[in-house]
Amino acid sequence: MPPGITTLAADTPTLSAANTGFMLICSALVMLMTPALAFFYGGMVRVKSTLNMLMMSFISLGIVTILWVLYGFSLAFGSDIGSFLGWSPDYVGLSGIGVTQLWDGYTIPVYVFAVFQLMFAVLTPALISGALADRVKFTSWALFITLWVTVVYFPVAHWVWGAGGWLYEMGVIDFAGGTAVHINAGAAALGVILVIGKRVGFKKDPMRPHSLPLVMLGAGLLWFGWFGFNAGSWLGNDDGVGAVMFVNTQVATAAAMLAWLGYEKLRHGSFTTLGAASGAVAGLVAITPSGGAVSPLGAIAVGAIAGVLCAMAVGLKYRFGYDDSLDVVGVHLVGGVAGSLLVGLFATGGVQSDAKGLFYGGGLDQLGKQAVGVFAVLAYSLVVSAVLAFLLDRTIGMRVTEDDEISGIDQGEHAETAYDFSGAGGGAALRTAGSAQGSTAAARTKKVDA
């Protein structure tokens, strides 16, 4: 709501067809981000792990959707219990919600709000999967998702966005998920990989992306879907705040991509497609918490800073020896921390709220609040995720066998391969056709000679 406007009894919200349609479109865009992430991650792994990487994202669509309906929405957005958890019996199974019942204070139905937030819940554990490429049992991963969203994501979503949540009440600004989504997933990824260990051949064998076009396709679809992720988080389109967020999403992403490429050129001598895709994602991550609080010039600063910091951070795994396969820690954790803290510097006080950052005369107050939110979510997710991984590893086991990891997790876990080179159009078929053509040509030559 714009500052200075007083809500009167006559201003009681009524269902808005425009906002409802807008939010359904945004929900579909956020849903697209999970398959987009699957493509992005799927192209970054070696060919023998492609299908497993795709499936680690897709399975989240199935598991989290069912859990969200059964109890997840109630835990995250139900009536507050002690500032740490929600619960509303009417939300269990989404059974007690009226068709036209509005989300409190807004002009969209509860069902629309629930499905929009569902897509966030689906995407967040899928982000973790990139750190675990090549080495995790699929059944263990599915069980980890089930436990993790229950004891980590649903409570943290309530802290950050739920009415009565302790970070929400403190005034921590997280427009669309810097803490609840990206820091949460990045810290979880770090916790799990510290438990399960490195891939066979880490630092020794080449582990280059098998399909950079697939990576670029995934990054492009993520960029597209992120407009729904960010602009939709204002839950309406009446006062222009969502439009500012839309613009800032584009601006910060462009700045981060350019900054990453510039750093890469200076540091390594080349502009790479992987760098362009990773830089874009870093910008998307960083603007997610901050885009509703900063101006477009601030968005340029947020994107550029995040692009350089994340480009620097991805190399830390080689220095410290943790195997973050696809740089989830370097991009999502570091980008989420940067974007969340930069609110405390660049918030103008003239967009989503009147909270101002240090550079706009607000002092250190908002920066302090942001730091509390960042480190509370980081610590909780890191510790609980590591505990969950440890328990699963000691019971059913988290890792595939070394033989399956070396020969290919796709075949071992899914009995499939991403690409069939032996069928029609494959190399074997082409060689056979070539031999046949050679034999025919030789026969013709003999006839001519005769």
Major sheet, described briefly? 2 strands, antiparallel
N-C termini distance = 93 Å
- Strands across the major sheet, in which order? 1-2
Helix content: 55-70%
Order of helices and strands: HHEEHHHHHHHHHHHHHH
Structural class: mainly alpha
As a percent range, the share of strand residues is under 5%
Q: State Rg.
A: 24 Å
What general form does the structure show? globular
Count of discrete alpha- or pi-helical segments spanning 4 or more residues: 16
Mean pLDDT: 92
Number of strands: 2
Task: Provide the low-confidence segments as ranges.
Answer: 1-10, 425-450
Structural write-up:
This protein has 450 residues and is mostly helical. The chain contains 16 helices and 2 strands. The chain has helices at residues 17-44, 50-77, 110-128, 138-161, 166-170, 178-196, 212-231, 241-268, 273-290, 296-313, 316-320, 328-346, 365-395, 402-407, 409-414, 427-449, and strands at 80-81, 85-86. It has a two-stranded antiparallel ribbon. It is globular, with a radius of gyration of 24 Å.
Element layout with pairings:
Elements: H1 17-44, H2 50-77, E1 80-81, E2 85-86, H3 110-128, H4 138-161, H5 166-170, H6 178-196, H7 212-231, H8 241-268, H9 273-290, H10 296-313, H11 316-320, H12 328-346, H13 365-395, H14 402-407, H15 409-414, H16 427-449
Antiparallel strand pairs: 1-2
Helix pairs in contact: 1-2, 1-3, 1-7, 2-3, 2-4, 3-6, 4-6, 4-13, 6-12, 6-13, 7-8, 7-9, 8-9, 8-10, 9-10, 9-12, 10-12, 12-13
